[in-house]
Amino acid sequence: MSAASLRGMSRERALKLAAIGTAAGAFSGLFGVGGGSVMVPLLVLWLGYDSRRATATSLAAIIVIAAFAASVQATYGNVRVDDALLIGIPAVGGVLFGTWLQQRIRTREISLLFAALLVATAVELLLK
């Protein structure tokens, strides 16, 4: 982000973005989640992003969050690099398919599918 675009941003917007980032970082460090489950809903609710823009912005932010979180977890000896590669490499194909599919679904349907996923996850966690 350029200095000129930061100067043009309102203080309220900058504070909301910083709060979203802080919440995502805290959830990422604590639970291993943060991008989709925290950033996307907050970008939609607090800043009026549509689902596509919120998802894309979240994914871009996750690059920074994931790199830092993984390096901190590695200092504790918690990272299994072989397993991470076996998850991460095929995930690239999933990302390509998911992005392709997202561009073909209406924004409202994306929001409803995401909400259903969050509800299903919450129910599953409550039942365990």
**Can you summarize the main beta sheet?**
none
H/E element string? HHHHHH
Distance between the termini: 43 Å
**Percent of sequence in beta strands:** under 5%
Q: Could you report the average pLDDT, rounded to the nearest whole number?
A: 89
Helix share bin: over 70%
- The total tally of domains equals 1
Number of strands: 0
Structural class: mainly alpha
Number of helical segments?
A: 6
Rg of Cα set = 16 Å
Name the poorly predicted regions.
none
Net shape:
globular
Word description of this protein:
- This protein has 128 residues and is an all-alpha fold.
- The chain has one domain.
- The chain has helices at 3-7, 11-31, 35-47, 51-75, 81-102, 107-127.
- The longest helix is centred in the middle third of the chain and has 25 residues, at 51-75.
- The N and C termini lie far apart (43 Å).
- The relative contact order is 0.08.
- The model has no long low-confidence stretch (mean pLDDT 89).
